[in-house]
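The instructor's notes for this session suggest beginning with a concrete chain rather than abstract definitions. Hand out the sequence below and ask the class to guess, before any prediction is shown, which regions might be ordered.
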Amino acid sequence: MRPPLAALAPLAAALAWTIALVVSPDPLPAVPSALLVGIGLLLMATTSTTGLVVLGARWAHRLGWLVVAVGGALAVVRPIDTAWVVALAVTALSAAGLVSLQGRIRKLPSATGPPTQAVLLPLLQLCAPVALGLTASGEAWAVTTVALSALLAAFLYSRVIFGGLVVARVVWPVLALALTPFMDLPAVIVTVVLVAGNLALAWHPSAKAAFHPPRTVGSTFPIPPELAPPEILDAAGLDDRGRRKS
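After discussion, reveal the predicted structure:
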């Protein structure tokens, strides 16, 4: 595959495995595991593809590899059938596509882009449904609430919507931890790890700076008319002494 077709690799792998889970979610329970994994994979792949096509960003390339890795994990646990064979083949082609994109990926972060913590925070929240779906245990409503609220937190923060920083720093972590008593150990461990990573990123000063950029008050400094370019003086209707022409 050649760019930009290769940039669709994560989305192709996500679609293939989502269809495979619809055909047969075994050994994952359809709700919430297969549902969360399908939703999470599609969102991760869409975000990765957008970042690859528009920015050629490193984080998008790495997120694409994560989608492929999840596909590989599903290939290990899911029973072999026609959908499994097709999804595995698409995943292999997707991995080849990501390899072909290596030379087109930005080597260094953009000088004008957001800081690393501000990028990783919504990406971590975006991965929550897949992580919780693969380890879902306990009350389905609790696992689903934590996973979907993480997506909401990612949306509010990344779109710089009012309250998004508070949701990322306080509301979602508190909600996630409050629901851990309704989960079994695997989901509890994943939730605690997600919350810990979320807090480390959300409370970093650069995460706040990206959400609320510092503002500076501008100022002007008068210069002698003799130092101003003649074309600017002419455009302003002034002579070489700064007086308005009659």
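Then share the key points. The chain has a mean pLDDT of 89. The longest helix spans residues 30-54.
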